[in-house]
């Protein structure tokens, strides 16, 4: 059985390993995958965007050199 716009890639033993979807023929797959990702992270801790910005800026700022003798 084959479905137009869907390709199943198999390993050397013939076991299915990957599926490739033509999103022009199956656009709903993208929404389904987005929802899977949302469900996966829904219970993770949230960090305010301002806090994230501060951490990024801190990492990007040049470090001060200290002169020690």
Describe this entry's structure for a reader.
This protein has 69 residues and is of the alpha+beta class. The chain has one domain (6-60). The chain is 38% helix and 16% strand. It has helices at 28-41, 49-60; strands at 6-10, 16-21. Strands 1-2 form a two-stranded antiparallel sheet.
Number of helices: 2
Shape: elongated
Largest sheet: 2 strands, antiparallel
Question: What percent strand?
Answer: 15-25%
- The structural class is alpha+beta
**What value does the Rg take, in angstroms?**
23 Å
Distance between the termini: 77 Å
Task: Give me the side-by-side strand order of the main sheet.
Answer: 1-2
Mean pLDDT: 90
The ordered H/E elements are: EEHH
List the helices and strands and how they pair.
Layout lengths: L5 E5 L5 E6 L6 H14 L7 H12 L9
Antiparallel strand pairs: 1-2
């Amino acid at each position: 059985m084959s479905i137009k716009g869907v390709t199943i890639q198999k390993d050397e033993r013939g076991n299915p390993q990957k599926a490739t979807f033509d999103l022009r023929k199956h656009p709903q797959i993208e929404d389904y995958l987005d929802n899977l990702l949302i469900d996966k992270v829904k219970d993770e801790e949230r960090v305010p965007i301002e806090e994230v910005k501060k951490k990024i800026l801190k990492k990007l700022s040049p470090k001060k050199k200290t002169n020690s003798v």
